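User: two proteins, same treatment. go.

Assistant:
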Amino acid sequence: MVTIAHIVEKLVEQKPFLQEALNRGVINHAALAEDLKPLIEKELNKKVKFSAVNMAIRRLSEKLKTSFIETTRFDSESDLTIKSNLIEIVLYKEKNVQEQIKKIYDLIDISKGDILTVTQGFYEVMIITNSKHKENILKQITSPIKKIITDLSSITINLSETAIETVGLFYITTRALNWDNINIVDIVSTFTEMTFIIKENDTPRAFQALQSILKHDKNCSST
């Protein structure tokens, strides 16, 4: 049997930012109940009491605060690394793309702090590297270029091997960035590194958002 509680939960799940607001306790339950009441009545095809909707929202809010996301924890080994002046080049994947990638690797000097990330999909190849290599890389590319994105930065969360086994790490980090209206251009992940590619002008706010998560979790683990 479909209940008011079921419908409230479904409606909130469809709106991640509303779910986040309930979780943080920054939304007025009564105002939300007034907003959801007509939708609930339409789905149930009958009138419902405001008090019943308000109670369902209150119970859902309490449920969210004890969900698995809130038990997600980073540990003392987790920290942040920023790289700026990056560029992303997206190519259409063709037969000779591997030869082009090999030539690009020869241009990058990792020992001098250069970075190069190559991600291959079914139909695309994404290259992320320092902006200073743009012209030399373009000279080596013969495949059609789908997109070039400039003025990028990366923020990397370095994780311990035990932390990566924790459920919800990707969700809690992307949620923090989305909450502050920070667009994620790309996500690159390795075994113990989670890297977010963002626009350079978003870097200070993104760093602050992610740092607040790490500080919160470290403080919680030390108490």
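Protein 2:
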Amino acid sequence: MVLELPTGDLTMEDRLRRIKITTGDLKRTRQAVAADKLAGLADWAPPSLLVLAGRLMSNPQAGANINVTNIPGPQFPLYSGGAQLLEVWPFAPLYPSMGLGVAIVSYNGDAYFGLTADPGIVPDVEEFTACLREAAVECTALASRSA
């Protein structure tokens, strides 16, 4: 989905409420279903078709400057050659004109974040990471109050 994220001076509760409304509206327009179908191409499409789909999705005229992807992974341990996979390090590609990519993958009860930044556009990715950690603490506290 392509959407504008509220980044102004808002409480976390107001920010999440606005995101919920916006994403709910987009889901009702079926934009999320179309994106899901595109993601499903990875199961059978040749790499050249996936590259073309990626270029279509990364149209610089769309005005997007951040790419965020959330991929649910298996919620049980995976093994290779008898060794257990302990962590997942996701990667979000940067498309033309995008300064930051955030990939989130869940695995075995944990969530893993991967940040990719163009230092010419986002020279302070470490500061963004610190803000992301603070926001996670705020969200956790908010969820605890709601439970």
